[in-house]
Design a protein that fits this description.
single chain; about 500 residues; alpha+beta; six-stranded mixed sheet; three-stranded antiparallel sheet; 9 strands; about 40% helix
Length: about 500
């Protein structure tokens, strides 16, 4: 059996009427029907024109398609293959579902939020989604992420904080010590949208859905978020909805003043069960010091809008480079260059004047070898190309020891190589010869003068004859196409005399 050479494209169709490609849809859609998804969508959605007819059935079809792996309108055709029509009614065409979705506005998105919240409440009544003890806190986590997309015409797609073209998804989950995280609310936004935009609304919806699901705890839930969501709108909404808040604060004058007021005997030493690797210095951290101080957030607002709480501070005294009386605070004055490397690959012009680079130079992480490589790379490939080559080298620090990478940079520069590939090869060679590996004896140094990187170009320019003479003899046979001649042979044709004899014999 072999492929046909005639068709330019091959299309496979799943059309067996007795088979289905996603039998798992049967229990999933049964559960959706039991939770009232179709009825809620039919009651709450008010999509205008005839394209909004039978909204409940169309929402069920869209949910089924996503469960079956569809991630585009055309992929919704998976619901019409094989025997799917014998299992489900109203398997709409992709064009019908596409017309339905294109009529949506933000008001319809809010209607779908109401449908999702009530469906979740109904589902929680028949399945143990969230279970908590009477005295246990329910943890509510809020965060956003960038979902990469393809195609420059994708609606809403743009470059966000990660430097990747995509859409921004804001997600709120709830979890307990015995229950896995459950998504309570979500919002898909433009890729360039700031993290806190719309967060207050999501928090209000999340806590309302959490109350309706009734996980069984009488303790106030705890909302956790990072510093991107440190704002009065989000924090105030959570407190007003009956939740406590644990959020990372940004360093402003009020926070610095509160930290400075902590007495030295208030710091308490803690030890980690597992050491944490410090990305900027490459050291392992096994202990730190913590302290807390009363703090009032949002003092610039009206008295009724201020929030009283506790400021919990963590510091690592043994990493303080200046050895001042007040040790350096963890994640306050530290800006790790490694955190921004992927973004800087897309915007290399932002590296020279960045705070992260200045901090890396001050702490000794960005060494003279890195400076020399950067200068040589910019001279060879220009500012943008040379900076990208440097970033590729900096990324090697994630998987290799700093001493090995610096050794690889030094070896590469001796022959004028300014690529991360050469640095990586020489860094591994440096590790093999002893390098930074602990608990072993370094290998014997090479005898005589040995260049760790050999430039064939320089050797050819210096003495081409010596290079050719130094190559080992090539004992391989010359290439031949004799084995393929049989594919080109034509069938033998009879000569004219033979053809006449055959005709005469046939006639007789």
């Amino acid at each position: 059996m072999q492929f046909k050479h005639a068709p330019a494209a091959v299309s496979a169709v799943f059309d067996d009427p007795n088979l289905v490609s996603a039998a798992g849809l049967v229990p999933m859609l049964r559960l959706a029907e039991r939770s009232g998804l179709a009825g809620l969508a039919q009651d709450w959605l008010t999509v205008a024109t005839d394209k909004g007819a039978n909204a409940g059935a169309k929402v069920m079809a869209l949910v089924a398609g996503m469960l079956a792996g569809a991630d585009s309108i055309e992929d919704m055709n998976v619901l019409r293959h094989g025997g799917m029509g014998r299992l489900f009614n109203r398997t709409y065409a992709p064009s019908t579902l596409g017309s339905f979705l294109r009529e949506f506005r933000f008001g319809h998105v809010r209607q779908l939020d109401a449908v999702a919240s009530r469906t979740l409440v109904n589902l929680a009544s028949s399945a143990p989604l969230l279970q908590a003890r009477d005295d246990e806190r329910v943890m509510v986590d809020l965060d956003d992420t960038i979902i990469g997309v393809h195609g420059y015409k994708k609606q809403g797609a743009s470059f966000g904080y990660s430097g990747v073209r995509g859409l921004n998804a804001l997600i709120a989950t709830a979890s307990t010590s015995t229950s896995a995280p459950v998504i309570l609310a979500q919002r898909l936004r433009q890729g360039k949208t700031g993290s806190p935009k719309g967060a207050a609304r999501i928090v209000a919806d999340t806590l309302a859905s959490l109350r309706r699901t009734n996980p069984g705890s009488t303790v106030r839930p705890l909302l956790r978020a990072d510093s991107a969501f440190y704002g009065h709108a989000t924090i105030g909404t959570a407190i007003k909805a009956g939740a406590d808040v644990s959020v990372t604060v940004r360093m402003d004058p009020a926070v610095k003043a509160a930290i400075a007021s902590i007495p030295e005997d208030a710091w308490e030493t803690i030890e980690y069960t597992d050491a944490i690797r410090d990305e900027a210095t490459g050291r392992w951290i096994s202990k730190a010091e913590v302290a807390e101080v009363p703090f009032t957030a949002f003092r610039s607002r009206k008295f009724a809008e201020r929030v009283d709480g506790r400021l919990v501070v963590r510091r690592i005294p043994d990493l303080n480079p200046n050895k001042v009386e007040q040790p350096t605070l963890f994640d306050v004055f530290r800006v790790d260059l490694d955190h921004y490397l992927e973004v800087l690959l897309h915007k290399p012009g932002a590296l020279p004047g960045s705070t992260a680079l200045a901090h890396a130079r001050a702490t000794g992480v960005f060494t003279g070898a890195h400076e020399a490589f950067w200068a040589a790379a910019r001279k060879t490939d220009g500012d943008a190309g040379g900076t990208r080559a440097l970033i590729d080298v900096l990324l090697l620090h994630r998987s290799m020891a700093a001493e090995d990478v610096i050794g690889g940079i030094t070896a590469a520069l001796t022959v004028g190589a300014v690529t991360a590939d050469v640095v990586a090869v020489e860094a591994r060679r440096h590790e093999t010869l002893g390098g930074s590996r602990l608990g072993r004896h370094p290998a014997d140094p090479p005898r005589g003068h040995e260049r760790r990187v050999v430039s064939l170009t320089q050797r050819r320019l210096a003495d081409p004859a010596a290079v050719i003479a130094g190559l080992p003899p090539d004992r391989r046979p010359l290439p031949s196409v004799a084995a393929y001649d049989q594919l080109l042979r034509l069938p033998e044709r009879p000569s004219p005399e033979t053809a006449v004899a055959i005709q005469e014999g046939t006639a007789s």
